[in-house]
Amino acid sequence: MIKSEGIVKAVHWLERFRKIILWIVLVIIAASSLVYIQADLLISILAQPLNGVQLHFMTPAEGLMAKLKVSVLGGLIVASPIIIFLIIQATGSVLTKKIKRLLIFLILPLSFVLFAFGMVFGYTLVLPTTIKFLMDTSNGFMIPTLSANQYFSFIGGLLFCIGAVFELPLILIALSRIGIINSKMLKKARKMTILLAVIGAALITPSPDAFTLAIVTLPILILYEVSIWSIFLFEKKDKRKKSKEFSE
Prior knowledge:
By secondary structure, the chain is mainly α. The protein is 80% helix and 2% strand.
């Protein structure tokens, strides 16, 4: 039978979870509203890779929906540190104070910086060549009439994927700290990682251009190597700590 104490704890946890969801929704709405004020500037920046090709809306509401989509995507990025902070705070007694401080003051800022850097990298280097390739493919037998809503969905997904790729070191380090992987496993998987990186880069950027493929693949491999050496250093530190405790 389920103990009454367990039921009470579950009810309290659900109550706290409900409040956190409400706060997260309010934070996203507030951040999206702030981004909406500068949505026209953001749209003009995101449309620059088109090199003058005009965006269109196909239905009366599509222009507004495209603007709202850009605002919500921007709001999610701006609000992401606060959202993660609220989730960490909601964990309550599950995490120790030391781990909470590590997450809030180191992992959270580093995660945001890596994701933002990945999106900037994608916008400046990957997006222009990808858009150029896709536009040139239809040149000569089709005239591009681009839907603003579809365009912003496409580049939003592309930039999000590249930003997520730049989170690779943190993900691998986290997996190593809970004992799922180690540096030796990652070293043995280098050849497979190169193959997967090339396939992933080809999926993210449909351009067959070798330069575009290389500029997406190389950061993945560099981040993978950074992850290996970071995990290796953590393992050495753990070994020193264990040997010190054993000697005492």
